[in-house]
């Protein structure tokens, strides 16, 4: 069986290379077809905006790598949130750019490098890609500013809740305690604890869980990048040539049969 297989393979190769002219012609035709297809398919352009992040360690003290990573991931969740993307979509429509959520999911990419977030946008039009990336960055910074305000308010509420807990612990069985908690009774403190806890949860939700010590700014606006990041011309030409080769390789077998 091995000898027969070897004999058949050798015959196939001999017949294949004997028709090198046919192979060459079909590969050239395939490559030209790929070139023609590449003229129809537009290149893809990519640009990016950059948001830089710092942490005020005078407020947090030393943080572990895990804590820093959690803080950065929380900020990234806000940048790439559904609310931000929807605002970008609406503002793009106002600017005359039609884009849907599925296109944004495909062409909007958020990447992190140390303490920087890269907001990358791809589009078949370089100027439109830059416009969309800048809209995204502007809306992200605006959302982060608002979220940070809620994070600060949540921190103030937490301090107030800590003081209420302190007073509850200081209450005597008779409901009496030393100043400054003496003017509050148990019912009032319990109601305040419940109300403050609910306010903290609400503010934390609106803050996207951001750490109040985070500081961020738009470090780089998206520029118009006229160099395509992905041009399909070379791929299509190569694929067409390979298709021509396969067709040429099959023809001798058909003739043999």
Secondary-structure element pattern, one letter each: HHEHHHHEEHHEH
Report the oligomer: single chain
- In DSSP terms (H or I, runs of 4 or more residues), the helix count works out at 9
Low-confidence runs: 253-257
Mean pLDDT: 82
Please give the number of β-strands. 4
Based on CA atoms alone, the radius of gyration comes out at 32 Å
Description:
- The structure is a single chain.
- The chain has 257 residues and is of the alpha+beta class.
- It has a domain at 45-220.
- Helix content is 65%, strand content 12%.
- The protein contains 9 helices and 4 strands; from the N terminus they run ααβααααββααβα.
- It has helices at 2-18, 20-40, 57-60, 65-79, 82-94, 101-107, 126-170, 186-206, 233-256, and strands spanning 45-55, 108-113, 116-123, 214-220.
- It has a 4-stranded antiparallel β-sheet with strand order 2-3-1-4.
- It is elongated, with a radius of gyration of 32 Å.
Q: What's the short story on this structure?
A:
The chain is α+β, with helices and mostly antiparallel strands and 257 residues long. It is built from 9 helices and 4 strands, in the order ααβααααββααβα.
Write the layout of secondary structure elements.
Elements: H1 2-18, H2 20-40, E1 45-55, H3 57-60, H4 65-79, H5 82-94, H6 101-107, E2 108-113, E3 116-123, H7 126-170, H8 186-206, E4 214-220, H9 233-256
Antiparallel strand pairs: 1-3, 1-4, 2-3
Helix pairs in contact: 2-9, 5-7, 7-8
